[in-house]
Write a structure and sequence with these properties.
Length: 285
């Protein structure tokens, strides 16, 4: 696999970053994951915009213009022959000569930029989407700026491990009695023709897939209600689903051992997935 590091395309085994890189020492970096379908990027502009916002929130310089980032994404997809898969992009505050809590001067420390691809055949025509996911609820113990897409993913990793040990697919995180989001996705319930999902704030990541799906709701003859919901309300909902760049719209069929409906993906979640894939493919670049 060919990867990109700080201006160079290299075989993955030759790519190197400093041990003083602040992402390695302090989790001081941000990332984006953009999906690839039919060799094209899904909602690249949305990801580029959120990346810029994450960088601004952390007072990090923007090392590359959007057009340059797009070019690197496309080149990696091309050289690695990715038809279905993901492009991972990470920008860190870089590697000052030593460890220090205070941000280094951006004049003397340049950001580290890393991109690589992951081939994922079957991303769109997914067996998991046909089956539906089972989730458990766990307490949300992350920090208070979940709207910034940082590489500090230890608690989401712990959450995925809790799910794995419980024999299910993922965990929904709960704070003050309400669902925030999934470990790596936004969470939704469906009641009649209404999609209910938590409103945007610092408490959740502003999903690019979330924005798209809410835009497409009308096409599915559905209304959107952005508000908190509890696990108990979710367990009584008609349907539930999650969204993320790597899963698109993924039905949820069980929450904390309670089966939703007949335990198979519901018609609205399936329809939203269809519309999302259709529309995103049309707009892919
Ligand atoms: N919430 C969290 C915590 C996430 O990690 C992700 C995916 N990175 C999402 C939501 C979904 O965001 P997107 O649709 O932009 O992938």
């Amino acid at each position: 696999r060919t990867v990109y590091v700080n201006g160079e395309y290299l075989p993955e085994g030759e790519a190197k970053v400093s041990i003083f890189d602040r992402a390695f020492l302090m989790g001081d970096g941000v990332y984006e994951v953009t999906s690839v379908l039919g060799g094209k990027l899904i909602d690249f502009a949305g990801h580029a915009k959120r990346l810029a916002r994450s960088l601004d929130e952390l007072e990090m310089p923007h090392p590359l213009a959007e057009a340059e980032l797009l070019e690197i994404h496309r080149e990696l997809v091309r050289v690695n022959g990715i038809d279905e898969g993901l492009v991972y992009l990470q920008i860190t505050r870089g590697a000052p000569g030593d460890r220090d809590f205070v941000y280094p001067d951006p004049e003397t420390t340049t950001p580290t930029v890393v991109l690589f691809t992951q081939a994922k055949p079957g991303l769109a025509d997914s067996p998991a989407a046909r089956r539906g996911m089972r989730v458990i609820s766990i307490e949300d113990q992350r920090w208070g700026r979940r709207d910034i897409k940082t590489v500090q993913l230890l608690y989401p990793s712990m959450g995925k491990m809790m799910a794995k040990k419980a024999g299910v697919d993922d965990a929904w995180m709960v704070e003050d009695g309400a669902v925030t989001e999934g470990t790596s996705n936004n969470a939704y319930i469906v009641k009649g023709n209404r999609i209910v999902t938590r409103a945007l704030s610092n408490d959740i990541l502003h999903g690019i897939t979330r924005a798209a799906v809410l835009r497409y709701a009308a096409e599915a003859q559905m209304e959107v209600e952005e508000r908190d919901f509890t696990i108990a309300e979710a367990q009584e909902a008609d349907e539930a689903f999650i969204t993320s760049a790597s899963t698109f719209v993924m039905p949820v069929v069980e929450i904390d051992g309670v089966t939703l409906g007949d335990g198979t993906p519901g018609p609205r979640a399936r329809r939203l997935r269809e519309i999302y894939l259709d529309e995103s493919l049309k707009a892919a670049i």
